[in-house]
Batch of 2 targets.
Target 1
Amino acid sequence: MQAIILLGAPGAGKGTIAEGIKAATDFIHVSTGDMLRAAVKAGRPVGLEAKSYMEKGELVPDGVIMKIVTARIEEGSPTDRYMFDGFPRTTEQARLLDEVLVAHNGKLLYVFLLDVARDILVDRLAGRRVCKNCGAVYHIRNIPPKVAGVCDACGGPLYQRADDSETTVLNRLDVFQKQTRTLIDYYRKKGVLKHVDAGKPKEETQAEIVAMLQKPALRK
């Protein structure tokens, strides 16, 4: 089993870039954010446990995150290649993930740090709108729907998630910077950290990462 990590502040484009990498490689996209939101929507215990933290833009406790991640890995096969999107977010989560990988004979290949200027991050998040019915994502300027407030795909109403309000966005960015400083140092010391400019067009960012992942040596 092999794994890579996409690390970046909220709004850095982790999910979008992950989809591009997924389409070009055999890495399985594992988004803890999506899994947590699904757990919240389904009313599962782990989702209810995480809900109050997510609505305030705070980090979900390590124990809750690891329950979801470990379960996902155990569902897979020994030859799977995982792409973690926005996880881990703390050094403790990183250590716990190392333990899980070792226990499953896994190897961490790279941690891609997606670098984006703060003002761009705020604009991306505060302008985001999501369909209540199908979950399609839009942006009021960059990816506007054909009809304001209405989803192009299913006609459902668009809304701004509570954690995308400008006040909460600023708090999320502050929390990210504070909590991940030591995490970035942790992966830098392990020799797996790769800085990637995610402020440029997503296709260029995706291509840069895919080129590194297609090296034959990584299969060994």
Target 2
Amino acid sequence: MEAERIDLLGFTGHKSLYGPMGTGGLIIGERVDVERLRPLKRGSTGSNSELEEQPDFLPDRYESGTANAVGLAGLTAGIRWVSEQGVGNIRAHETAMAQRLIGGLQEIEGVTVYGGLDAERQTATISFNVAGTSCSNVGMRLDEEYGIMCRVGLHCPPAAHKTIGTFPEGTVRFGLSAYNTLEEVDEAVEAVAHLAAETR
């Protein structure tokens, strides 16, 4: 945060940190005027319980209600695992898989791959569509016929899909992680190739 001069850093726990869904955090830098940063929710914190007002000190100022202790324990375990594996090692593995997936999908006639198409400059999350069929159909068939999980649709950012021309239907999205293998990437490419061949 110091090197990049970041004042506020928000993060999800269930993505690259391998924690449970519903976890995350906000890191507040020293230059931030917390008086201008109003809490999203107000309520009991367990500290200053005799007062009706939200505490004015950190972190209690922004932590209303009972903490998700089980989720935070899971997030801690995820962070510990990432640290043991090494961020660089995980990134190298994900980059290799993403480049293989991008290249493989691009070679399939009728498949459009979206994004920068450079695994070195993006996450290992790849969106694509197959001409002649809906993304929901592709996702259903990948699941039912090949045992391959993916996500289909708008994936939350409708403006992004308007920009790339896939609104309102969306895309098929593969999200690779440290647990995936290059062999699984090859299986996914082969499955998409079979589906694409059927629509031509």
